[in-house]
Amino acid sequence: MAVGIKVQNLKAWFGKTQALHGITMDVAPGKATAIIGPSGCGKSTFVRCLNRMHETIPDARAEGNVKIGDTDIYGSGSSAVQVRRRVGMVFQKPNPFPTMTIYDNVAAGLRLNGVSRGRELDAVVERCLTSAALWDEVKDDLKKKSGASLSGGQQQRLCIARALAVEPEVLLMDEPASALDPISTSKIEELIFSLKQNYTVVIVTHNMQQAARVADFTAFFLMGELIEMDKTEKIFTTPSNKKTEDYITGRFG
Amino acid sequence: MNASYIGIRRYLVNHLATALSWLAAALVLVPLLAIFGYLVYRGFGSLDWAFFTQIPKPVGESGGGMANAIVGSAFILLIASCIGVPLGVGSGIYLAEYGRGRFGHLVRFTADVLNGIPSIVMGIAIYALVVIRQKHFSAFAGGLALGIMMVPTIARATEGMLLMVPQALREAALGLGIPKWRTTISIALRTASAGIITGIMLAFARVAGETAPLLFTAFGNSFWNMDPTQPTAALPLQIFVFAISPYEEWHRKAWAGALVLVVLIVAAVTSVRIVASRGVLKGSH
């Protein structure tokens, strides 16, 4: 199920401003990889390049070589829509569809992609809400309440369930807990821990403790460049690069 | 300046500001209630069953009604909506989702100018372009004139409402691998639908009472007509004809017609809003 990601010389621009300067790194399959770094270092841009969301911003473009499994997602003949079905995304601010019920939110990816499967949909919705640790809290309101009526932490887990429903192989999370309180945050972290058994997870985070808690590997970005990537405990105990050490010890950023 | 002086000052200013805003709100209601009250006073007495079921009687005969004009208005407005709503919503979608370039600016500018064109000019334009070519007045020409007048209001309302849909929702949909066109229809348009419907109803209510664009297009008709290629009666036209006539009986009918027109517009707008609000979920806003 889980696939690895090979990134070679990935560059990205917003208009004339270059945000990524040739990133080369491998993401291990079935593991959680954290991207850390100060604001504006390109970590969000980097994950948004992994499912071709970067190019949805006007004037933004990316080039380089990104392989999800064996597919070169920037190769000719690759479609952004297909890539995004394989590489799911959870955003910083919970963004459930406000006009849809909880049930419809989870089913949206399948329905709007035209692969609605009638009765089977009930099972998919239950399975995904269970995986996202939300089922028990919402099972009585599935078709009654709007996704937007839930609390912030519940909304974010709903968004994770919604992303899981299209059966992606990779799950990108762009600061998924930064808008949540500590209790909701720890729920999301537990969830990431269980999700990485079935999915390759890439998580952007500002919170270094969070990276230390959930990630197997950690990559440190600075000014649009990858400074260092290694096993998480190595990065946080004996980083090989001076800049990494300065950052994790709080000397800048 | 001591503390109690500031306290009293704040108290007074606060209450003054509140009172002024109440007054302004109340003043807004005055014209509407005054017009409606006067219409009821002048028109209600002439309303009877015949008014809604019969066509106008010749001068001198009492009785008769505006049934053909009521149905004719509905017919013309249906034609207008069939033209104005898809064009307006469609161009609004273009402006919000794609219209960043020069063509978008051109469309936006055109819509704003079109919105400012006096309705009589619209009537003359359709007369010259459609009626003269077809060599007769028609319900279709009337519907076309009103439909075009609806377009700018609907287009700008649709654009505005779509732009208010958070970009995060579009990203959520795109991130699920939903194609852009589907995201626009099923997410953006659906989220904005309440506001778009309000815009459509505003445009509808505005053209429903228009008389000038119908003078040279639908023209009016003293008899029943349901053929879109033929001259057709409409409430505003009938009111106009009756109101400028020298006959007391017709004047009373014109007042009654005006009352009916206002009530029907309010009823149409209200019922659309009620139907549209049915699907709204708990806690979705």
Q: How would you sum up this structure, described in words?
A:
Chain A has helices spanning 43-50, 80-86, 102-112, 120-131, 135-138, 152-165, 182-195, 208-214, 232-237, 242-248; strands at 5-14, 17-27, 32-36, 60-68, 71-72, 87-90, 170-174, 200-204, 217-222, 225-231. With 253 residues, chain A is α/β, with parallel strands linked by helices. Chain A has one domain: P-loop containing nucleotide triphosphate hydrolases (Rossmann fold). In chain A, the strands form 2 sheets. In chain A, strands 6-7-8-3-9-10 form a 6-stranded mixed β-sheet, with helices on both faces. In chain A, strands 2-1-4-5 form a 4-stranded antiparallel β-sheet, with helices on one face. In chain A, helix 3 packs across helix 4, helix 4 crosses helix 6 (152-165) and helix 6 (152-165) runs parallel beside helix 7. The model of chain A has no long low-confidence stretch (mean pLDDT 91). Chain B is mainly alpha-helical. Chain B has 2 domains: 2-45; 47-284, MetI-like fold (Orthogonal Bundle), CATH 1.10.3720.10. Chain B contains 11 helices and no strands. Chain B has helices at 3-43, 49-53, 67-97, 102-116, 119-134, 139-164, 167-175, 180-208, 212-215, 235-243, 248-277. In chain B, helix 1 packs across helix 11. Chain B is globular. The mean pLDDT of chain B is 92. Chains A and B meet through helix 2, helix 3 and helix 6 of A and helix 7 and helix 8 of B.
